[in-house]
Amino acid sequence: MSHTAHIPSHRKPRRSASKTALRAGVAGGVLSTIAVAGAAGPAQAEPVAQTIEMPTITAGLSTSVAASAQATQAVALDLETQATEDAAAATAAKTAKKAKAEAVRKAEARKKAEAAAEAKAQEAAERASRSAERTTLSASTGSSDSASSSSSSSSATGSAASVVAFAQSQVGDAYVSGGTGPNSWDCSGLVQAAFRTVGVDLPRVSQSQSTAGTQVSLDNLQPGDILYWGGAGSAYHVGIYVGGGQFVGAQNSSTGVVQKSLDYDPPSGAVRVL
What we know:
Radius of gyration: 68 Å
Number of strands: 8
CATH class of the largest domain: Alpha Beta
Low-confidence stretches: 30-41, 134-154
CATH superfamily of the largest domain: endopeptidase domain like (from Nostoc punctiforme)
Helix content: 40-55%
CATH topology of the largest domain: endopeptidase fold (from Nostoc punctiforme)
CATH architecture of the largest domain: Alpha-Beta Complex
């Protein structure tokens, strides 16, 4: 026995004839296919043209931007509308304030006009009343004092009568410092205006008027004489003697122009111009 007889043989077992024939057939078929393909020549590779559609990233972004722009435009429109409304409201408020101020001004002007009209009516009524009283007083004085008829206003003639008539026609007018007529006077303004009616231009103030003529005694007065209160050349008040022991003068703001008895306010002296 050989010394390797007990070692299993490393040789591969032989294939059976059937398996060998099968594999040979398969191999032959493959080789035939390769041969046919080789005979046909190398295949022309056609270029692959395929468009791959990527997701449209900007589509959604455009929509978002458009929506944001629309929202911004809406906000701007709202702000513009609000600004227009605020401007309109401010203009309306200003117009209303101006109209109110104008209405208040007109109301105040109307109130002042009504007050002035009322004061004027009252003054006219008082003037009429004083005129009636003066007429009654003159008639009473004329009938009760026949002894002094020679020195009464009815005895005044010529220029003196005109001066007396003018002075008496102003009785009831208001006294205003510096007044020179036609409806308000101060004392020297009334005297000056009375003598101006007969062409005599007297000084404007009492001091000068008290020395404008010849000094006469208070016991020898004639209608048209200028009466003064205070010293000659420093008189503070003047009036006109109208006869019958009475004078006319613009006394003060409380009484206005009045006709009073000499006893009411005895003068200091008198001057005769006419």
